[in-house]
């Protein structure tokens, strides 16, 4: 990243890809990866253009489908809490079937190759359904409030609906996967 030199005048965003070795929680890598993106683009807002979990559970960097679902929601909440301007999940559909559970690059999809949703796709649908229950699309909001007892591995995001209602999203990122 340092070899790129300072390019902030030539870019709109600090671009990062964030992956989580050995099933680590998003909090384990987020600050480090975002910091790398700031090296060539100091002061620019961060955009996460690639992130996700492989469901190749037999690979040392894969997780099972239930863990992918939980950690994908943590990715979305973590990204919002960090103020990232966008986050893109890798990838929509698995590249090819993997009966072995060891083909990491083939198994990042939110959907299987037959387009059946994995639990992660269902979790995203459920979260967006809950957050769209008000009027319109939720965006970062402003409201005076306080929280007590949120653990160090937790984050909160305040969202405001178009009708003025607020949603407070709380997420805790414990270690849930052990290969």
Set out the fold topology.
Elements: E1 14-18, H1 30-38, E2 46-51, H2 65-82, E3 86-89, H3 119-131, E4 139-140, E5 154-160, E6 166-172
Parallel strand pairs: 1-2, 2-3
Antiparallel strand pairs: 4-5, 5-6
Helix pairs in contact: 2-3
What are the defining features of this structure?
three-stranded parallel beta sheet, alpha/beta, 6 strands, 22% helix, 179 residues
Describe the overall structure.
The protein has 179 residues and is of the alpha/beta class. Helices cover 22% and strands 17% of the residues. It has three helices and six strands, in the order E-H-E-H-E-H-E-E-E. Helix 2 (65-82) runs parallel beside helix 3 (119-131). The longest helix has 18 residues, at 65-82.
Offer a quick outline of the entry.
The chain is an alpha/beta fold and 179 residues long. It has helices spanning 30-38, 65-82, 119-131, and strands spanning 14-18, 46-51, 86-89, 139-140, 154-160, 166-172.
Shape by Cα distribution: globular
Report the sheet with the most strands, covering strand number, pairing sense and barrel closure: 3 strands, parallel
- Count of discrete alpha- or pi-helical segments spanning 4 or more residues: 3
Q: What is the beta-strand fraction?
A: 15-25%
The helix/strand order is EHEHEHEEE
Read across the widest sheet, the strand sequence of neighbours is 1-2-3
Q: Are there runs of 5+ residues with pLDDT below 50, and where?
A: none
How far the N terminus sits from the C terminus, by CA atoms, comes to 30 Å
Tally the beta strands.
6
Return the structural class: alpha/beta
Measured on Cα atoms, how large is the radius of gyration?
A: 17 Å
Helix content: 10-25%
């Amino acid at each position: 990243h340092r070899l790129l030199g300072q390019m902030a005048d030539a870019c709109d965003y600090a671009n990062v890809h964030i992956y989580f070795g050995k099933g680590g929680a998003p909090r384990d890598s987020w600050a480090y990866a975002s910091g790398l993106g700031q090296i060539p683009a100091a002061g620019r807002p961060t955009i996460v253009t690639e992130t996700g979990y492989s469901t190749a559970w037999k690979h040392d960097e894969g997780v099972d489908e239930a863990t992918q679902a939980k950690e994908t929601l943590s990715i979305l909440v973590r990204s919002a809490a960090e103020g990232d301007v966008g986050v893109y999940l890798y990838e929509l559909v698995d590249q090819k079937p993997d009966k072995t559970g060891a083909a990491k690059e083939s198994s990042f999809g939110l959907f299987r190759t037959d387009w059946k949703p994995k639990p992660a796709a269902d979790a995203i649908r459920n979260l967006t359904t809950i957050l769209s229950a008000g009027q319109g699309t939720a965006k970062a909001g402003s409201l005076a409030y306080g929280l007590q007892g949120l653990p160090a591995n937790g984050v909160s995001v305040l969202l405001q609906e178009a009708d003025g209602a607020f949603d407070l999203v709380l997420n805790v990122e414990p270690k849930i996967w052990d290969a």
